[in-house]
Amino acid sequence: MSWCWLARCGEPGTGAVASATLSQLDGRSAGLLAAWEHDGDPPAGSAKVDPRAIDPDGDEAVVSLVLAPDRVWLPFDDPAVSGAIRAVLALPAAEVLSTLLLRDDRFVGALTAVRGAATQRLDDDPFGVIFPALRLRVGPGLLGRMPPPVGPSMQRYGSGSPWPWERFGV
User: Fold this and answer.
1) 77 pLDDT higher than 60
2) Which structural domain range is residue 107 located in?
3) CA–CA dist 133, 148 (Å, integer)
4) CA distance 100 to 120
5) 143 is a domain residue
6) In this structure, are residues 55 and 35 in contact, taking their beta carbons and an 8 Å threshold?
7) Confidence category of residue 156, pLDDT binned at 50, 70, 90
8) How confident is the model at residue 152 (pLDDT cuts 50, 70, 90)?
9) Confidence (pLDDT) at 125
10) What's the rounded Cα separation, in Å, for the pair 124 and 91?
């Protein structure tokens, strides 16, 4: 499994494979969220995201976007991250769920997306206990749908891949 870059930005720039407008729930603009292939040239502040989260034909969604402050990160194996993953596995599945990584081992956030009436799923985002969570609306053209994570697995498939992944091995 490879990964994509994901960044909140003012404009998608060149090479983005998908992007969508971000807005506050009250409709105020909050910039853009964009994705690039793993071998692309993303802007500063980008993080690794599970590529299954990205779909240029995806519908609008409401997200909990958890982002670490600049130059702040936790080891992926930190007990706070493990605890958040355990808590996520106990919740109803979201349509999109991925941790956000720097390098292969630095947790810098998470992306959880739902559609329709399921927005209460985002009320108590376990990753939002680690870093601030923003509740935003993402326009069409960026987020797809992912299979729910297989529990109780908390390990990543390869240290360079964001969690979750649905199986071990090849």
Assistant:
1) yes
2) 4-138
3) 21
4) 22
5) no
6) no
7) low
8) low
9) 95
10) 10
| C-beta atoms surrounding 47 within 10 Å | 26
Closest CA to 40 of 12, 4, 10: 4
CB-CB contact of 20 with 137 (8 Å): no
User: How many independent structural domains does the chain possess?
Assistant: 1
| CB-CB neighbours of 134 under 10 Å | 16
- Pair 160, 48: CB distance under 8 Å: yes
Please state whether the predicted TM-score (pTM) of the whole model is above 0.85.
yes
User: Which strand (E) or helix (H) includes residue 111?
Assistant: strand 106-114
Pull the structure tokens for residue 108. 């810098």
The Cα–Cα gap between 166 and 156 comes to 9
The Cα–Cα gap between 115 and 51 comes to 19
At residue 132, what is the residue type? P
For residues 135 and 39, the answer to whether their CB atoms sit within 8 Å is: no
Instruction: Please check whether residue 157 is in contact with residue 168, taking contact to mean a CB–CB distance below 8 angstroms.
Output: yes
